Amino acid sequence: MSKPTSSTPSPIARRRSRLLAGVVAAALLLGACGSDDDDGAGADTTETTADVTGDEGTGVDGSNGTDGGDGGDDSGPAEIEGEPSGDDRIVVVESGFGSWEDVRDGVITTGSGVELANVSDETVTNVVVTIKYIGDDDSVLGTSVGKIGAIEPGGTGHAGGAGYRTKVEPASLQISVEADATSSGAEVIEYDQEKLNRDDRALLNIVVGSITNPTDEDIEVSLWCVIRADGEIVASTQNTPLKIAAGATHVANASSGGVPGDSADCSLSTIVS
To answer: Tell me, what's the pLDDT at 104?
Structure first.
């Protein structure tokens, strides 16, 4: 594998993955929590390692992804195609990752993204998404954790890992989800996404947009975007938490290092602690 000669990361993996349901094996659990001090070049977020205690998970291989389906009736959310996540109210619609060589030292770094759907008839809040990067020998190369404030019935939410230095290209992802048993009061609000920019010098995917607080109270929000290249999820980016005054409009950009993308899908929700 040759080191890239320009400032643009060399994508060695662009994977959109069909999800295979399975149980997260105890042998794959990480025994400690902490922070990854080796974020990828240009990443502005911190990856966190976390333990998963026996939750049912979803494995990911390198085959084609699945898209959410339409259908259903007016009595509840539309029927959505997906795989188990560990929470009966949420399915994993799609996930993927992209790896590249860090131009500073040639270390392989991986970004990931996940799209979830709420198949229940109630808003699900405080959704914690744990993503494990799995090697060819089934070892855990690293773990990223993202939190989504809320997903409405029939709606989608996004999370991922911005840049984890896996040192080798992962073979797959393993995903598990936990959420509050009862609603925390968090809500989904609109994100006015304008465009996706690429800064090759800083090795960044930059989602540009704005948020308007429709309430008469100050709010705190969480913005997540999955980054796509040729329709496939290759990375994600976040901007959380953001505090927005009552009635105010706030420019909200989200950026992270990773495989160059050409589009982004975003979700935004309030945070209630």
So the answer is: 80
